[in-house]
Amino acid sequence: MSVVAEAQRRRTFAIISHPDAGKTTLTEKFLLYSGALAEAGAVKARSGRRSATSDWMEMEQKRGISISSTALSFEYRGFQLNLLDTPGHRDFSEDTYRVLSAVDAVVMVLDSAKGIEPQTLKLFEVCRSRNLPVITFLNKYDRPGREPLELLDEIEEQIGLRPTPATWPVGISGDFRGVIDRRTGEFTRFTRTVRGSAIAPEELVDPDTAAAEEGSAWEHALDESGLLDAIEADVDLESFRAGESTPVFVGSALTNFGVRHVLDAIVDLAPAAEARVDAKDNRRELDADCSAFVFKVQANMDRSHRDRIAFVRICSGRFERGMVLTCDRTEKPFATKYASTVFGAERTTIEEAYPGDVVGLVNAQGLNIGDSLYESTPVSFPPIPRFSPEVFASARPLDTGKVKQFRKGLAQLDEEGVVQVLRDPDMGDSAPILAAVGQLQFDVFADRLDAEFNAPIEILSAPYEAIRLTDAESAKRLREIGGIRIMERGDGHLVALFESRYRLQRIEGDEPDLTLDHIIAG
Ligand code: G4P
């Protein structure tokens, strides 16, 4: 098969949701429906069952959240689906944002009893601002919940995405019988299986039989669907691909109701891997020589190996294990002798990959997030946006004999993007400020410094409220003003930290010539 044909059968996506909305359950059911799992219940560690989650970090287990991202690949209807898992915790969002740069679509899972929960709104907004195609799954409809029409309003108002229901429920939440596919008018009736561990039996029922057997539930569903017809809330491929409208599916991941409809939508509606535009706005055609970019770096995933894996998304050409790629930043060659896919804690060596695929390159010492790799024709893909930090802290080694380890850990975890490490240009590593989008990043940082570098630290909150990018000339002036600290980021950029947002606003107003740029988000 040609590279283009291989790319066309790829669907690379992520699931985003508020913790507990059902992301893990849905992931598991995707695997069940694709045949990759014989029985549901294996993804999330349950007593006596195999754990396939990425449980390599103790903290992850303690908190019961998924901190590391995993890439799962599975076949469905002859298509290859690449699912990039994203941590579902608000406070660990930088990692999630980076994953979004490597996918072509997302599935947004909402708990239909709760709707959009404030903590995850930001994540949804990022998808919107990047025009990522979003498929919405209203989950947990087997339980009493909110009116689906009300949830549609909420999606439109809060995210600015126009909801276009693809399916509509028959039966109220809590008494869920099946869904009407609004595109074909077909009614799919489901039957529960025990804990949803097997595929839910589905029955296609014609409208007359449905009317006779489902009575008022059917009438109600038809009425509401008719209302949606009247406002032309129909699935529209063009606006979905442009990130303006979102096909909505109603279901229950737990009982498997509606899971197949979502999988079909990923294949039928979500875009295939397409030619990417590079930093100079040129298209890197799919059949050009191999190219990829690093969207995630993770060290010490496997304690016994002490390694560093760079996760790359293939953008063009055919990747073959063993090929030598060049890194655009360093212009150094990188031999891809050890390439793997990572399914939870398990690794499988990968021999070849195509646009849309994710490959974990092992022993990736010289590779950083945002680096591009190419086989022969040089290319640099656009940088992955960094997010404006919102919380700041200082870090101090608890054991003064471990300064060397502390420095090593600082450099490593900064490169991985666990936190952003800011250094005082005059003091180097001795009094770094850590900057992050969420507090949990500091905990992960401290935990890993201790566990992996044997350098326990103390994290103290630092009194800053805002950060701006600046330059050497403006820094000179800013240093004269109180309440501002000039620091240097890992990439050499100067930043100014402000103790008060109000003060920053005043300076921006009073001295418009100073360079005080926002760190762009999204
Ligand atoms: P997450 O990854 O988004 O955090 O959510 P997860 O799938 O772990 O689901 C959170 C809880 O919600 C789980 O219950 C799960 O069984 C339940 N759940 C998921 N989908 C549905 C659904 O469609 N209907 C109903 N009723 N529940 C659903 P738990 O009690 O926390 O765990 P468990 O004991 O079931 O494993």
Automatic annotation (TrEMBL):
The keyword Protein transport does not apply. SUPFAM superfamilies: EF-G C-terminal domain-like (SSF54980), P-loop containing nucleoside triphosphate hydrolases (SSF52540), Translation proteins (SSF50447). Its main location: cytoplasm. GO terms for biological process: regulation of translational termination. GO terms for molecular function: GTP binding; GTPase activity; translation release factor activity, codon nonspecific; translation release factor activity, codon specific. It is found in: Cytoplasm. Pfam families: EF-G_D2, GTP_EFTU, RF3_C. Belongs to the TRAFAC class translation factor GTPase superfamily. Classic translation factor GTPase family. PrfC subfamily. This is Peptide chain release factor 3. It comes from Ilumatobacter fluminis.
